[in-house]
From TrEMBL, chain A:
It comes from Phytoactinopolyspora halotolerans. Signal peptide: none annotated. It comes from the Bacteria. The keyword Hydrolase does not apply. The lineage of its organism: Bacteria, Bacillati, Actinomycetota, Actinomycetes, Jiangellales. Pfam families: SBP_bac_1. One of its GO terms (cellular component) is cell envelope. This is ABC transporter substrate-binding protein. The keyword DNA-binding does not apply.
UniProtKB/TrEMBL annotation, chain B:
Belongs to the binding-protein-dependent transport system permease family. This is Sugar ABC transporter permease. It is found in: Cell membrane. It comes from Phytoactinopolyspora halotolerans. Keywords: Cell membrane, Membrane, Transmembrane, Transmembrane helix, Transport. Residues 1-26 are annotated as: Disordered. Its main location: membrane. PANTHER family: ABC TRANSPORTER PERMEASE PROTEIN, INNER MEMBRANE ABC TRANSPORTER PERMEASE PROTEIN YCJO. The keyword Transmembrane helix applies. One of its GO terms (cellular component) is plasma membrane. It is a multi-pass membrane protein.
């Protein structure tokens, strides 16, 4: 722009005059001003008209993903029903969305309302970026929705309203079970039953010692579907005292990890880390029919359905202590603490809209999340829909008995420490006792650093 | 464009008849205003996008700053925490290991390739382009290609090993192999650029020296050792400094290829810093890491500058 503005009337050319020079200075100045104006324009368009409120709405989804498409359709329907609200969408893939969000918050430029991964609500709330929704939630009938309690802080505040729920259950490939002549899993299954079936389902056709199909996935960097529920099923704890005391270094944890190590090693019914990565990562195994069973959250239905896998779900098996270790993540809408009253009201209207029957049904049909609207979750349309899995009630039962995933203000940091140490033992490099001790002390350090500083 | 405008103006004023002193002074003032105007985009860039963040990060390094609430001054707390942070030292160790493998490998290979491609043979441009293609590709693309080549089950790397009867490897999944593998991929991506620098250096060596050496009966190896290498020692120095700095700042590659895995074995310092700042809300601590890393790079570069006197010859 600035360059093309200089081009006419080049000095040194015949006919170049003082008037030209003056014009040139003006055009350069105009160009610079224009550039400056473009740079500032992103923050200057809030005063569209006094009777409409502009609501900036953030969520994570890959562009063109079915979730992205559906969300945009729902936004259109929302604005059609609420002509006084203009919605400005800010969407990005998961990782980008959250790293950008943190810098947006620093710059005072975060969306008015955004979809938060359930485990991150506390992180943002504890630092004061979220609006307390307790009063607004009090105006609703809490029994109409799943997951509100999981978002309640120890002090009783609520900073996120459920958008969709996730809880791991046992996914199994019905065709593989039939072929092997094994009865499908049921609510009476224990970890021993799981191991026995998984061994039978492991197939090494060419006899080279490397199975082509494994019975069960055990090794996964996504610990919601791996060591977290397993340790709990063996009677262990990860964090206690309102999620501020790490308690993972226990006999029960060692037993759970030993069960996992046996599955990967001696029993050989679960792929190790290298095999898992070679086959495309932990979340590809079930959809690619490389494993017969996984612990999977509701969202794993989507890739399995897309790949035409015949599958169903069963409750998590019970561990030696009779526990299943059910945990849940409630992805939630949160409102920016910096949003003005009008924007906050508009944001709450969006949240209420999304919790309604139509949007919840649409979202569930995607295979993305368990509806948080109980009426929808218990409706015939959801429970007996044509899309797999047939046993959707299993998710609802698991959700009822779920604990949260140890959420606190430093969730990403402390679970990162735990995961790294535990995965190091599962990869065979680290001693279980040392790793658990290290995991516990380092994770506790991260938690104490925050809570000591803020108290 | 800006350059041609300036030179055009200069030649024009030189052609004008001499004017009075006052006139000259006002012209000089005007020239200065013009200079500032033309430099203003760069000055604005320097002030707003470089000096300001630099100063801010130095300040943050002495605070706890969670991006949400205003920074709180904590003095040297971040730096004392760094000293006892085993994870930080581990990432620094990983980075050093990466540098020790990558810097010499890339420099030597780039020189050898430049020598090989510094010839007048048919289709030489094709070879030069081939080595340069990874340089202009983005890390995401290179990572995707490398990932599929290095897949332990289906990648071509293991297929070849298997074919010649060698044991296959878990390239990116083995904690012991991941850094050497990453260094190898980084060489593949970066060698073309350094090769180009060497090519430019090689072309500055007078042909007569080689001819004289040939007449004196020097072998190809002797010519490489005694003419080429001293001849490009200036370029070698530049390549070493640039490579070491980019290595210590390496981020994209591990971010897209391993995310620091398996189990932290390839977590380099900048990735660790990124996590602290952008995932764990600890921008103060991340800034402290950045400044320690900067000081390290500075010291290493000064050492390199000092050492160059011993081996770099400028013709």
């Amino acid at each position: 722009m600035a360059l093309s503005a200089i081009r006419p009337g080049c000095p040194g050319r015949p006919g170049y005059t003082r008037r030209h020079r003056t014009m040139r200075v003006w055009s350069v100045a105009a160009g610079v001003t224009l550039l400056a104006a473009t740079a500032c324009s992103s923050s200057g368009d809030e005063s569209a008209s006094s009777d409409t409120t502009t609501l900036t709405l953030g969520y994570y989804a890959a562009a063109g993903d079915p979730a992205d498409t559906t969300m945009r359709e729902l936004v259109d329907e929302f604005t059609a029903g609420n002509p006084d609200i203009d919605v400005e969408i800010q969407a990005a893939p998961y990782g980008d969305f959250f790293s950008r969000l943190r810098t947006q918050i620093a710059g005072g430029d975060a969306p008015d309302v955004w979809l938060s991964d359930g485990v991150l609500v506390d992180e943002f709330a504890a630092r004061g970026s979220l609006l307390d929704l307790s009063d607004r939630v009090a105006g609703l009938n809490e029994d109409d929705f799943h997951g509100i309690d999981l978002n309640r802080t120890p002090d009783g505040e609520i900073y996120g309203f459920p958008q969709g729920a996730q809880t791991p259950v046992l996914f199994y490939n019905t065709a593989m079970f039939e072929q092997a002549g094994i009865d499908p899993p049921d609510e009476n299954w224990t970890y021993d039953d799981l191991a026995a079936a998984a061994e039978q389902l492991t197939v090494d056709e060419n006899g080279d010692g490397t199975p082509e199909v494994y019975g069960m996935r055990v090794h996964s960097s996504g610990f919601t579907e791996s060591w977290w529920p397993m340790i709990k099923a063996f009677g262990g704890d990860i964090v206690t005292d309102d999620n501020t005391t790490v308690a993972v270094d226990s006999r029960e944890s060692r037993q759970a990890l030993q069960w996992m190590l046996d599955a990967i090693g001696d029993d050989g019914f679960a792929p190790d880390g290298v095999t898992t990565e070679s086959l495309g990562g932990p979340h590809q195994l079930f959809a690619n029919q490389m494993v017969a069973m996984i612990f999977g959250i509701y969202a794993r239905s989507l890739p399995a359905i897309s790949a035409d896998v015949e599958f169903d779900v069963a409750p998590l098996p019970t561990g030696p202590g009779g526990e299943r270790g059910n945990v849940a993540i409630v992805n939630s809408w949160v409102i920016n603490n910096e949003a003005g009253d009008e924007a906050a009201d508009a944001a709450w209207r969006w949240i209420e809209y999304f919790a309604g029957e139509e949007p919840q049904t649409r979202w569930a049909e995607l295979g993305e999340a368990i509806p948080i609207n109980r009426a929808v979750a218990e409706s015939d349309a959801f429970l007996n829909s044509d899309t797999a899995p047939a046993g959707k009630q299993v998710f609802l039962d698991a959700l009822e008995s779920s604990e949260d995933l140890g959420v606190n203000a430093v969730w990403a940091e402390y679970t990162g420490v735990l995961n790294e140490n535990i995965m190091a033992t599962l990869d065979g490099g680290a001693d279980v006792d040392t790793a658990l001790a290290e995991a516990q002390s380092k994770a506790q350090e991260a938690i104490d650093r925050f809570y000591a500083e803020s108290s | 464009m800006a350059q041609s405008v300036v030179t055009g103006r200069a030649s024009q004023s030189a052609a004008r008849p001499p004017a009075g002193v006052d006139n000259r002074r006002s012209r000089r003032r005007k020239d200065r205003a013009w200079g500032v105007l033309f430099a203003s985009p760069y000055l604005a860039h320097l002030l707003l996008l470089m000096l300001w963040p630099l100063g801010a990060s130095l300040y943050f390094a002495f605070t706890t700053y969670d991006l949400v609430n205003p920074p709180e001054w904590t003095g040297f707390e971040n730096f004392t925490r760094l000293l006892s942070d085993n994870n930080f030292w581990r990432t620094l160790g990983n980075t050093a290991y990466f540098a020790v493998l990558f810097v010499p490998a890339q420099t030597i290979l780039a020189l050898l390739l430049a020598v090989a491609l510094n010839q007048k043979i048919k289709g030489i441009a094709l070879f030069r382009t081939a080595f340069f293609v990874p340089v202009v590709s983005s890390w995401v693309v290179v990572a995707y290609v490398a990932d599929s080549m290095l897949n332990p089950r289906s990648g071509i790397a293991n297929t070849l090993l298997d074919w010649v009867g060698l044991p296959t490897q878990d390239w990116l999944q083995s904690p012991a192999l991941v850094i050497p593998t990453l260094a190898g991929v980084a060489v593949w991506k970066g060698v073309g650029y350094m090769m180009l620098l060497f090519l430019a250096g090689l072309q500055a060596i007078p042909e007569e020296r080689y001819e004289a050496a040939k007449v004196d009966g020097a072998s190809a190896l002797q010519r490489l050792r005694h003419i080429t290498m001293p001849g490009v020692s200036g370029t070698t120095f530049l390549v070493l400094v640039l490579t070491l700095i980019t290595t210590l700042q390496a981020f994209e590659q591990v971010f897209v290829m391993t995310d620091g895995g398996p189990n932290g074995a390839s977590e380099l310092t900048v990735l660790y810093m990124y996590r602290q700042g952008f995932e764990y809300f600890q921008m103060g601590y991340a800034s402290a890491i950045a400044w320690v890393l900067f000081l390290l790079i500075l010291v290493l570069t000064i050492v390199q500058l000092r050492l160059q006197r011993k081996w770099v010859h400028y013709a």
